[in-house]
Amino acid sequence: MIRIKTALISVYDKTGVLELAQRLKEKKIEIISSGGTSKYLKQNNIEVTEISEYTGFSEAFNGRVKTLHPKIHAGILARGNKDEKELKNLGAKKIDLVVVNLYPFSEEVAKGSSDHDIIEKIDIGGPAMIRAAAKNFEHTVVIAEPDRYLDINLDGISAEESKKLAGRAFTLTGYYDENVSDWFGPQEEYDSERIDLRYGENPHQIASIEISKNTLIDFKSPLQGKQISYNNGLDAISAWSCVNEFNRPAVCIVKHTNPCGVAEDSNLSSAYKRAFSTDPTSAFGGVIALNDMVDEDLAKEMMDNQFIEVLVAPNYSDGALKALSNKPNIRALIGKKGVKSPSESKSISGVFFHQTSDEVSFSEMKYDTKTKAVPSSKELEDLIFAMKVAKHVKSNAIIIAKDKMTLGIGAGQMSRVVSTKIAFMKAEEEGLNIKNCVLASDAFFPFRDNIDVAAAKGVKHIIQPGGSIKDDEVIAAADEYQISMTLTGFRHFKH
Question: Annotated catalytic sites, by residue?
C-alpha cells in the first residue's frame, strides 16, 4: 500500500485540479507545484510549495526548464527505505503522488499555428515526470488524466491500482510522442496521419485514428463540435458509406454502426423525415449522414427533431452553419464525395485482418428472378434500395422497405429468422404500413422459415444473394405464397 504524504502537481489543463488539491489539503498532504499551477492553487487558498522554492533553482528560459531537477526526479524515483539515506543526502523528499498533464501539442497543430508556437507546446518536463513515476509505480502513484482525480483513494493506494495508472500513463506519453514524431517527419513519406480521439469505445480507453488520402470523411478539420470519439468515428463512416450508395437525395441515420433509418427522395428534407420515421427512438443521439448540401431550414429541422451527435454532409450553407452554432457540441464533418477506400482492415486483440472493400455495381448487377411472380420495375427499384441498405447493416441483416424508405431493420442477430422478426417488430412498433413491402437479406436463406414469416406479414417481393443448398426449397416456398424472389449472386456479410 502506497501512503501519500507529498504530492507534486504540474498541469496545463486545470480541470478538476482544485477539487483534488482541496482533498489533499484536508488530508494534510504536502503539495509541491510548478509556476502556473502553483499560482492557481494559491489564488484558491491552497498552500503549496513552489518547485523553484523546493529545488532552490528558479525557472529558466521562460519556463522551458522548471521540473528537470535531481531533487524532483530523485523524489519521484526513490524506492522507499532502500533509497531513503541517499535521498536525504540530496536534500530531497519522497514524492508519493505525481499529478501531471501535458501541453496540448495536437491542439496547437490543429489550429494551424506557426512552427515556433507548435514547438513551444512540445512538453519535455511533463513526460519525464510521468514516465519516472510510472516506472516507480510500486512506490509512486501517477495520475495523468483529470477524470481520474476523484477516483483516487488518498488514504492509501494498492500497488495493483498504481500499476494500472502507470500503464495508462505510458500509453498517454506514447501517443503524445507519436504525434510529435508525425509532425516532424516529412509528410510526403507517410501514407497516413494519426489523430487523437476523445476516448475509445468506453471512456477509460485511449484511442486514435489513422487517416489517409482515401479516408472518406475529413476528420482532421471538423466545422464545429466536441472532439470526435472512437464510436463517433465508426458511426460517421458507417452512415456516410451507406448514404453514398444513392444518387438521389438520401439520408442515413446510424446508431451503434447500424443504420436505424434510411430514405431516398426528391429532396433532403423529405428524405430526412422518412428516414427518421423508421425508428425515432433509436435515432436519438444518432449520427446523420446526408449526400447533398445541408441548408439552414434542414439544419433547424433536424436539431428541433432529435438529439444529434454527428452530422456528415458534403457541404453546408452559411445559414446551416450559423444554425448549427446554436448547438456547439454537434460535430459537423465534411464527407468526401466520390472517394472510395480500396481496402478494409480490422484489428482484434493484436491480430490484423485485411480485405478489399465490398464494392459492387448495383446498376450493372444481374437480377435473376427465380419465381413465377416477377417484381415490377418500381418494385425492383425498392428491392435494390433495400439491398443497398442491407450491405451496411451488421449480419444477419434483414431490411423491409417500401417507396425507397426503410420500414424495419433487423441487425446483428445469430439467427436470420430472428432478424426477420425484429425488422417487422420495429415497423409495427412505429405504426408503419408494411402492406406490399419488399424484403432484402444480406445473405442466402438457409431454410424456408424466413419466407413463412415474411408471407405472414404480407411481403410480396424478396431479394437475396442465393447460393444455399436449399435454394430450391426456399424458392418453392416463395411460389407457394406468390412472392417474387430475385437472386443477385452477391453476399454482403458485415461482421
Answer: 135, 256
Domain 224-335 has CATH 3.40.140.20: yes
CA distances from 397 to 387, 389, 464, 491 (A): 10, 9, 11, 11
- The Cα–Cα gap between 380 and 383 comes to 5
Could you tell me the pTM of the whole model? 0.68
Q: Beta strands 351-356 and 398-401: pairing type?
A: unpaired
Pick from 130, 234, 226: which is nearest to 172 by CA?
130
330 touches 308 (CB < 8 A): yes
Instruction: Show the beta-strand stretches assigned E in 147-292.
Output: 193-196, 208-211, 217-218, 250-255, 258-264, 286-290
**Domain 368-487, CATH:** 3.40.140.20
pLDDT band for position 148 (cuts 50, 70, 90) = confident
**Percent of all residues in the chain with a pLDDT value above 90, rounded to a whole number:** 65
Higher per-residue pLDDT: 404 or 201:
404
* Pair type for strands 368-369 and 484-487: antiparallel
Residues of the chain with CATH 3.40.50.1380: 6-184
